[in-house]
């Protein structure tokens, strides 16, 4: 079979399975309301948890950054793309996370691939929660280390795996807040199990920064865990920070090692300096967004209580990620389409992004929403659920 035919067959197969991915074209900046195809939709699927992606001060810093530094960085960090703006942001992120140093990466995906591969290889072992983000799983697979997964948040399973190892070095890797379920890793227990077995620990807190902990310092701050307990800490800048990019925070030795050995750090162009400038502005806002975080918590409570009284089962999540498990892919797609008809944008997340039989509506709430908008969503969900349920029993 030639390539063209093979691809066509795979596309047709995906379509049949209700797993075909399509993109809707957004016609406005991120916010509680998005324009799509000329109509406004209430946005319940972005990761812009604090509404910073279109915040006037962040946008102004991006403008000023472009005026000061131009559009592009021109080269990788190790050649001559590492500007004073990047450097200042790294110092501010180190201070923010309470780590010795921080290092910018161009995306979270690249940070995860590059960090795992700089730390472990053949003869070592990587242990990951089954529900870790794809970039962490890919990093583990690529590393050449013995790659094993443990059942989601199952500490007995993790301990058993850690204790039964002939590897030179073990690395435990986990999401702080799980991106498709919204629950948190049991970090205190993971820290303890890692320490007891001389394993290193890496936490990806893409969804914890900005939303959890004092001043939005994330999951490790929430649990009071320092650099010795969590030596490798990853953050992304495209979620609550509202901009783009990622960082790793940890010891001097860790960061210097990444600069020497992390291929996704070394062999790629540095972020535009203007993005670093915008992120410095968003970091200041994120730190001081206590009111926004409180408001967000109120919306989360309102949403959870609302679902409860509608008889909709929620996951064990206190984060802005509030998924509703639907089960079948087709039903998740129908409900998402009905929600759009009713003016709410909630994306259906299907396998292979989530395990088989757990297709879901991944609702995310942000500080930019108000409580009337959450009420509208609850009403729409109720309608979509009853309609999807009716259709399910038709022949
Ligand atoms: C979004 C996400 C990433 C990827 O970050 P990007 O900067 O978007 O590449 C990594 N890890 C987790 C847990 C994420 O949710």
Automatic annotation (TrEMBL):
Keywords: Acyltransferase, Biotin biosynthesis, Pyridoxal phosphate, Transferase
Residues annotated for pyridoxal 5'-phosphate binding in this entry: 108-109, 179, 207, 236
Pathway where it operates: Cofactor biosynthesis; biotin biosynthesis
GO biological process assignments: biotin biosynthetic process
The keyword Acyltransferase appears for this protein: yes
Catalytic activity: 6-carboxyhexanoyl-[ACP] + L-alanine + H(+) = (8S)-8-amino-7-oxononanoate + holo-[ACP] + CO2
Alphabetical list of InterPro entries matching this protein: Aminotrans_II_pyridoxalP_BS, Aminotransferase_I/II_large, AON_synthase_class-II, AONS_Archaea/Proteobacteria, AONS_Proteobacteria, PyrdxlP-dep_Trfase, PyrdxlP-dep_Trfase_major, PyrdxlP-dep_Trfase_small
GO molecular function term, any single one: pyridoxal phosphate binding
Domain Aminotransferase class I/classII large: 40-381
Catalytic activity, EC: 2.3.1.47
Pfam families the UniProt entry points to: Aminotran_1_2
Alphabetized PROSITE patterns for the sequence: AA_TRANSFER_CLASS_2 (PS00599)
Binding annotation for substrate: 21, 133, 353
Modified residues (N6-(pyridoxal phosphate)lysine): 239
Described purpose of this protein according to its UniProt entry: Catalyzes the decarboxylative condensation of pimeloyl-[acyl-carrier protein] and L-alanine to produce 8-amino-7-oxononanoate (AON), [acyl-carrier protein], and carbon dioxide.
Subunit annotation: Homodimer.
NCBIfam families per UniProt: bioF
Family from the record: Belongs to the class-II pyridoxal-phosphate-dependent aminotransferase family. BioF subfamily.
Name of protein: 8-amino-7-oxononanoate synthase
């Amino acid at each position: 079979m030639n390539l063209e035919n093979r691809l066509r067959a795979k596309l047709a197969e995906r379509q049949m399975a209700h797993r075909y991915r399509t993109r809707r074209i957004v016609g406005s900046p991120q916010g509680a309301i998005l324009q799509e195809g000329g109509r406004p939709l209430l946005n319940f699927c972005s990761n812009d948890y604090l509404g910073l992606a279109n915040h006037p001060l962040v946008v102004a810093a991006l403008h000023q950054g472009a005026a000061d530094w131009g559009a592009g960085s021109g080269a990788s960090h190790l050649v001559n793309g590492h500007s004073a703006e990047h450097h200042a942001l790294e110092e501010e992120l180190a201070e923010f996370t309470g780590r010795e140093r921080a290092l910018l990466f161009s995306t979270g995906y690249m940070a995860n691939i590059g960090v795992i591969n700089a730390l472990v290889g053949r003869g070592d072992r990587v242990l990951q929660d089954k529900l870790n983000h794809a970039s962490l799983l890919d990093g583990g697979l690529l590393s050449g280390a013995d790659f094993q997964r443990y059942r989601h948040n199952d500490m007995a399973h993790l301990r058993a795996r850690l204790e039964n190892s002939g590897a030179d070095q073990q690395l435990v890797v986990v999401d702080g807040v799980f991106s498709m379920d919204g629950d948190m890793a049991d970090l205190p227990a993971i820290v303890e199990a890692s320490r007891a077995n001389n394993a290193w620990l890496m936490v990806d807190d893409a969804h914890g920064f900005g939303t959890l902990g004092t001043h939005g310092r994330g999951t490790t701050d929430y649990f009071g865990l320092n650099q010795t307990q969590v030596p490798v800490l990853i953050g992304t800048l495209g979620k609550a920070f509202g901009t783009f990019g990622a960082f790793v925070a940890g010891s001097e030795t860790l960061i210097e090692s990444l600069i020497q050995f992390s291929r996704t750090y070394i062999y790629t162009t540095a972020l535009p300096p203007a993005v670093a400038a915008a992120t410095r502005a968003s970091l200041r806002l994120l730190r001081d967004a206590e009111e926004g975080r409180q408001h967000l918590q109120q919306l989360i409570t309102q949403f959870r209580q609302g679902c409860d009284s509608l008889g909709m089962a929620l996951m064990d999540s206190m984060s802005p990620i509030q998924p509703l498990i639907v089960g079948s892919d087709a039903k998740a797609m129908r409900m998402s389409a009905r929600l759009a008809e009713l003016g709410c944008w909630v994306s259906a997340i299907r396998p292979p992004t989530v395990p088989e039989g757990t297709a879901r509506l991944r609702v995310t709430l942000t500080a930019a929403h108000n409580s009337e908008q959450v009420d509208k969503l609850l009403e729409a969900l109720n309608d979509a659920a009853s309609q999807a349920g009716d259709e399910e029993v038709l022949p």
